[in-house]
Amino acid sequence: MTDRTFGRALNVRDDFMPAPTEQPVRMTTFEEPFIDPATSTEEIFRATYLVLRDHGYAGVSIQRIADRTSLSKSTIYYHFDDKYDLLMQFSEELLTWYIDQLVVDHEGDARASLDRLLDLLLLGETADGVCFESVFAPGYVATIMEMRAQAVRNPEMREYVSRTDAMIRNHFEALLEAGMDDGSIREIDSETVASMLFLLFEGALLLRSCEDDVEWLTAVRKPVDSYLDR
Amino acid sequence: MTDRTFGRALNVRDDFMPAPTEQPVRMTTFEEPFIDPATSTEEIFRATYLVLRDHGYAGVSIQRIADRTSLSKSTIYYHFDDKYDLLMQFSEELLTWYIDQLVVDHEGDARASLDRLLDLLLLGETADGVCFESVFAPGYVATIMEMRAQAVRNPEMREYVSRTDAMIRNHFEALLEAGMDDGSIREIDSETVASMLFLLFEGALLLRSCEDDVEWLTAVRKPVDSYLDR
């Protein structure tokens, strides 16, 4: 496993609090993940990201990934058991990266962080102009879907999917609790609402990626507020 | 196209009203789809269902389907352009069948029909004992996921997915409107709530199929009621 895990985002509730900044900067662009790899593992993740982007899930092979790094296939096999191990670790790492970019490394209270996520998924754009398309690469979303489809029958993939989903639900729950603490979210049953938000989030991620007309998704943004409003 | 289409379920609002029955029978079992095929097309659909159940999406081939019918490959190609055409039509037909079994051919008001769907997806079982697992075959759900994953990049699949999803959303909307008419559902914005229900429904279908522990899904059942309760 790499040393940056979900644990960081999940356990440290203070991460959700606004960091004191001299000069608050509104983020209007979204960096590509692993764009400046510092380790072999990050270099492999960067290459995986590019192969997924260009060739889709079915086009992923260790050879193709190696071709986009300075590393040999055997070096990749030194870090990862096989293609699936790599894809699972990549997927987990990318998710952590998303959470950091979207929520943790951002000013505002917990509700503001949650609003960013909901705006991005349901409206397709955050208030400060980050678009869904610039955040979620099609290859990555397709990979999530393929993994879920495999998990229907494959116990190992099923265990991975269950674990990752629980992490995201816990993240939502921690965010809701931080919001109740900082007064930006009304008193709610955080576990129930986290489950509901996760379903909406997952559904929106899926449908926004595989449908042409997703204008209907924006309607769902408003009723969600009624669960959260103070 | 086969002659039973979504149109039937979508346009005929009266279908949602309880049919007068002398002796209401509570349905506690769930028939397998296409178990008694009456036409070549239905025989092909039955075989497709069995191949998906036993081999998954990746194992579907026209040859394998033909092997489980009394028909030749060329007869199958007479009815369907290719494997994907067959899978799309199968998927649409199966969805209609589900809707009929779960909602249309059932006593009770519109809210009762909606409750059946929500209970099945969120609780895993309807009040009269029909289980999620006995309704949604794993191969079928995996097929939906694979198709969605393909739709991320394939315009034809994307168009199909968009069309099918719009049909289901319209179905939810018609059901909500029938509920407002028969007094079983409070006055709501049916389009908004239909979109939200569809997201929850789709998310639950997906996650219930690819996760081990889905107990957390049951928590979402209660807040949904608050949108519908009179």
UniProtKB/TrEMBL annotation, chains A, B:
PROSITE patterns per UniProt: HTH_TETR_2
Domain of life, source organism: Archaea
InterPro entries: BetI_C (IPR039538), Homeodomain-like_sf (IPR009057), HTH_TetR (IPR001647), Tet_transcr_reg_TetR-rel_C_sf (IPR036271)
Keywords on record: DNA-binding, Repressor, Transcription, Transcription regulation
Transmembrane segments: none
Ranges for domain HTH tetR-type: 38-98
Pfam families: TetR_C_6, TetR_N
DNA-binding region: 61-80
Gene Ontology molecular functions: DNA binding
Protein name: TetR/AcrR family transcriptional regulator
Protein species of origin: Salinadaptatus halalkaliphilus
